[in-house]
Amino acid sequence: MLIGKFAASRKNPHAQSGAILLGVLVMLLIVGIMLGEAGALWSEARKHDREQELLKVGSKMRLAIGQYYKQTPGPIKQYPRSLAALLKDDRFPIPKRYLRQIYSDPMTGQKNWGVLESPSGGIMGIYSLSGGIPYKVANFRPIYKLFENKKSYGDWIFAYSPELDI
Hints:
Helix content: 40-55%
Number of helices: 2
């Protein structure tokens, strides 16, 4: 009986190799699906990290603009004329520095920012030039409550206003 089974399998050797090939294809399909899911999760995690970095960098830039404004000599306060003025404020005998560098926009990876000009001139805020849709749409710190339910990162404006000095 055992010899009969062995002889039957010898008659059709391609039946076993076909089953093995089918098993390998199913395994590759499963691995491909798992890698696709892992890639999607990694992409979402990366987007979340960039958003957090945008909030951090935007806050630093907003605070630097506020420091420049508050430390303006004389009674009439001024916003910086450019972001470079935050690196070296020449209005004093010993120049002041509010930032070490102009940070890159985490969403675009470039040092270009959109700028919000004040009515009296100068830059009172910055925003990302990315048109991406935010992952975070709620539970912002009180100063950034206006970011809730925004449709793009460009709507997240990091602006200093003396009336809202926090």
